[in-house]
Amino acid sequence: MARSHRLLRGAAVIGASLLVASCSAMTPIQTAELYNAGDGVRVDVSDDVRVENLMVLTDGEGGEGLVFGALVNDSAQEVLMSVTIGDGGIQLPVLPDGSVLLGSEELVVIPQVPAAPGGMVESVVEVTGYGAFEVLVPVLDGTLPQYEEYLD
Hints:
The protein is α+β, with helices and mostly antiparallel strands. It contains two helices and nine strands; from the N terminus they run αβββββββββα. The protein has two domains: 2-32; 41-151, PCu(A)C copper chaperone (Immunoglobulin-like), CATH 2.60.40. The chain has helices at 2-26, 145-148; strands at 41-44, 49-58, 65-73, 79-85, 88-94, 98-102, 109-110, 120-127, 131-140. Strands 1, 2, 3, 4, 5, 6, 7, 8 and 9 form a nine-stranded mixed beta sheet that branches. The protein is elongated and about 85 Å long. 24% of the residues are buried.
């Protein structure tokens, strides 16, 4: 009798282990998923060309704004990229396996931001040979300490 109890308990442990292991087999690994790691948005133009963390910083709707983000080119060819928001924007080449940081390496000013902080503005990202992509970009202010210095 005792032996059958041990066998039954052993079978239960093995069954529970298999059940728990099968749950992880059907659940995607979250660290393998791409996501916006910042406050801005990501625009995937292709597997090799993208815009990361695109956002606008301003004190208020109708005021001047600054565009922040990164233009990234992991391809072997130089690409011409542009970002347009309202009446402002930039167009520039991005070298192969290179990137350009908007807001630090390249200053992009929006004369009048068409939305208040907390809202979204329409933007067009265009890359020669890849087309144009419309995207909603978040508008932020200096409430978060990491952005306060840019709005002084």
